[in-house]
Amino acid sequence: MLNRHARTRQPTPSAPPPIRRRRRVTESALILGAGGVLGRALRAAAPPSLTVMALSRDELDVTDAEAVSTTLRALHPGLVVNAAAFADVDAAETDAEGATAVNALGSRYVAAACRRIGAHLVFVSTAEVFDGSGTTPLAHDGVPQPVNVYGASKLAGEQAVHEELRGAGTVCRTSWLYGPASARPLKELLARLRIPAPVNAIADRLSAPTSSESLAGTLWHLGTERLGGIHHWCDSGIATPYDFLVAVAEEAEILGLIGPPPAIRPVATGEQPEAVQRPRYTVLDKRLTENALGRPAPHWRTALRRVLAAGAGARA
Ligand SMILES: NC(=O)c1ccc[n+]([C@@H]2O[C@H](COP(=O)([O-])OP(=O)(O)OC[C@H]3O[C@@H](n4cnc5c(N)ncnc54)[C@H](OP(=O)(O)O)[C@@H]3O)[C@@H](O)[C@H]2O)c1
Q1: Does residue 16 have a cis peptide bond before it, meaning omega lies within 30 degrees of 0?
Q2: Average pLDDT, stretch 248-273?
Q3: Which residues line ligand 1 (CB under 6 A)?
Q4: CA-CA 20 to 30 A from 81: which of 107, 219, 231, 300?
């Protein structure tokens, strides 16, 4: 799969990214957490210029420091994208040790191994490092203040990357990530929309749904261009979980993925029990990253329509 001729174009940013690194050809890349939603999208979106290796949790457990070190030394990739994570926000709240082991310690082991072999690291983080008290899009240099275990463990992972790589690695935060219609969370939402009983959805929490396809392309670009520092990436526009569910229902019905959907009722945070406190406002300001890449993020509804249409095509 190695193609030494295919190249990404040089963007002409109108504003500088947080840290601009010297551009160089990457010949091999390693995806960690390759069995997850983002891991699979990364595999699908890998640039032809790369020879891509992909390891799922079964193949490399990032909490095993020795295995991480030995494996990276043996494979010697030029670029590592760490998509391995304890990504279940509810479960993290009751298993802080497990979330910290993967998101903080495991991320440190990966960053340290990258430093030792001179690989560039792209670490995927979350908008949930912020406390959600903001009302305007969150800048990459805003002060993080997590309100739950998951956010705290991911922030610890970010800090580990900065410490091990002295600011040279790439940290990319994102929000409300979803994969294809056949995967979480769309699969569950579509299943729920096939049940005729009314469904409640939170209508006072704001963020931006982001397709794994959109994020994967951005992560490859950041990695191959060595754009270090903190980046923000989410699809454009703003939505509540209610807006997102209504959009899923509308698009899925048009595409024949579901029949007439049930009533969707907007509810306020606190009206229905939730296992964990979630930040209310996690819209990321991604302009620096858009400028660095030389392209805007797609609108979330456009991206959602494309993802669901692909799901309908796959069923046909
Ligand atoms: N989902 C969201 O809404 C969201 C929002 C913002 C940011 N993010 C971030 O985006 C990234 C990708 O998330 P995702 O949605 O793709 O999550 P995902 O589908 O759960 O993928 C995470 C992958 O990491 C693997 N993993 C867990 N523990 C591991 C370990 N100890 N060693 C190696 N691999 C391990 C999981 O394997 P198993 O399946 O076997 O457990 C899974 O395949 C994560 O960094 C997450 O924090 C997600």
Answers
A1: no
A2: 95
A3: 33, 35-39, 57, 61-63, 83-87, 102, 106, 124, 126, 154, 174-177
A4: 300
